[in-house]
Amino acid sequence: MVIRAVMGGSVWKILVQPGDRVEAGQEVAILESMKMEIPITAQSGGTVQEVRKNEGEFVQEDEVLILLGE
Question: What does the CA dihedral 3, 23, 11, 37 come to, rounded to 10 degrees?
Fold first, then answer.
């Protein structure tokens, strides 16, 4: 499963790292856009396989942030 940016903005904080187990609804990252913090949550549970973006990077809407596996 992939976790995508819901809108364009800067990656303010990554809350998980590879190997972490996440549950559905858990916040995994926070984007910053126009001085607003936008939480990004996992839609399903899984184990973080890869974090594709670093804090401070700009992302476009729908860009992949994190990959989850079983």
Answer: 120
The answer to whether 49 and 38 have CB atoms below 8 angstroms apart is: no
By DSSP bridging, strand 64-69 and strand 58-59 are unpaired
Using H for helix, E for strand and C for coil, what is the string for the chain? CEEECCCCEEEEEECCCCCCEECCCCEEEEEEECCEEEEEECCCCEEEEEECCCCCCEECCCCEEEEEEC
Q: Using one digit for the tens of pLDDT, what is the confidence trace for 56-65?
A: 999 999 999 9
Separation between Cα atoms, residue 15 and residue 57, nearest integer Å: 15
For the whole model, what pTM was predicted? 0.91
2, burial (CB in 10 Å: exposed 0-12, middle 13-18, buried 19+):
middle
